[in-house]
Amino acid sequence: MTAHPELPEVSVEVVDSIFSMLSEMAVHLDDDPLQFGPKRLNGKIAEARGMLTECESIFLKVSQWLQKYRRTHRTLNTEMDLAKKDLYANDPEVRAGRNVADRDALATMKLRDQAQQLALVAQSQADLEAVLTVIKAKRADLKDVQARIRDQIKLCHDEIGLGARWGSRPDPGTQAPDLDASPNVDKQTLKDLHEMFTGDRSLEPDLAVVVGSSVEAVHEEPPTLPETEVDDSAADDLLNALPQPKEVVSQSIDDLLGDLDL
Questions:
Q1: Is residue 226 situated within a structural domain?
Q2: DSSP letter at 24?
Q3: What is the pTM of this model?
Q4: Is residue 255 pLDDT above 80, yes or no?
Q5: pLDDT tens sequence across 66-118
Q6: In this structure, what CATH number is given to the domain that contains residue 151?
Q7: Which of 27, 55, 90, 167 could form a disulfide with 35 if both were Cys (CB 3.0 to 4.6 A apart)?
Q8: Which pLDDT tens digit goes with each residue over 212-240?
Q9: Residue 152, Cα to own-chain centre: how many angstroms?
Q10: In angstroms, what CA-CA distances link 26 with 14, 51, 213, 233, 241?
């Protein structure tokens, strides 16, 4: 439940969630970043920048909330003071008090709702001020981390100038691949693939031997077929059974010229 309809809700759950997010914003630096290579150091830079951006976003939001609560608190406090003064001057019951403390107590009881609302706003304002203090501390811590990363980069350059080199050690918590745990592979298949891509022709047959055997096979005499006797009468019968060509009447040149009366 908010202290004022126009104000954002600042409950215990909201404050705890902000503290939880801030506690998770931590970048752990390596003792020797050179052995992990520049990629891991680059990841640290991006991680610190991302956390600082998120922290700045929370800082702006909480600062806006705090400004609204402070303005509302000043407004409610002014209204409360004017209402009390009106009771001191015009309310007979309040004026009948024996001293200032009694009159103030009587006036406060008459303005109970306004006093409770003012107390809720003051409580939320105090919570936001405490959260804002923690956010500022976390922001300063992240900026210090960025400065330490810059120092590590300079030290890495100094070590490289002295002859050191970037390493390729895996990140902590990650397991490097074990070559002994690799599955069994058919070595004959790998050998065939190796010979295919490297052009190893040791297993192919000799071309001279293949060509020589082919030439010898060409020069060999062809096999002779057995002679068979042919029946002349059967051949004549076959020829007589074939269709005979039509007879063509030929004329000499003189006969043709005579027909034309030339």
A1: no
A2: T
A3: 0.61
A4: no
A5: 999 999 999 999 999 999 888 888 888 888 888 888 888 888 888 899 999 99
A6: 1.10.287.1490
A7: 167
A8: 555 455 455 555 555 555 455 655 665 56
A9: 27
A10: 21, 8, 81, 117, 112
Please tell me the total count of domains within the chain. Answer: 1
Say which amino acid occupies 128: L
Whether 92 maps to a domain, the answer reads yes
Residue ranges of the alpha helices (H) in the chain? 12-23, 38-90, 92-95, 100-110, 112-161, 187-198, 207-219, 232-241, 253-259
For residues 215 and 235, give the distance between their C-alpha atoms in angstroms, rounded to a whole number.
41
Q: Looking at this protein, which amino acid is placed at residue 187?
A: K
Asked whether residue 199 is assigned to any structural domain, the reply reads: no
Print the domain residue range for 89.
37-161
pLDDT of residue 127: 93
How does pLDDT run across 34-43, given as a tens digit for each residue? 888 888 899 9
Can you give the three-state secondary structure of 71-89, one letter per residue? HHHHHHHHHHHHHHHHHHH
Comparing 123-132, 145-154, 192-201, the range with the smallest average pLDDT is 192-201
**Are 111 and 17 within 8 A, CB to CB?**
no
Residue 208 maps to a domain: no
User: Encoding tokens for residue 151?
Assistant: 């120092």
CA dist 253 and 102 (Å) reads 167
CA distances from 72 to 4, 69, 119, 231 (A): 8, 5, 12, 136
Contact 106, 94 (CB under 8 A): yes
Greatest pairwise CA separation for the chain in angstroms = 177
* DSSP designation for 120: H
Q: Is the pLDDT of residue 64 over 90?
A: yes
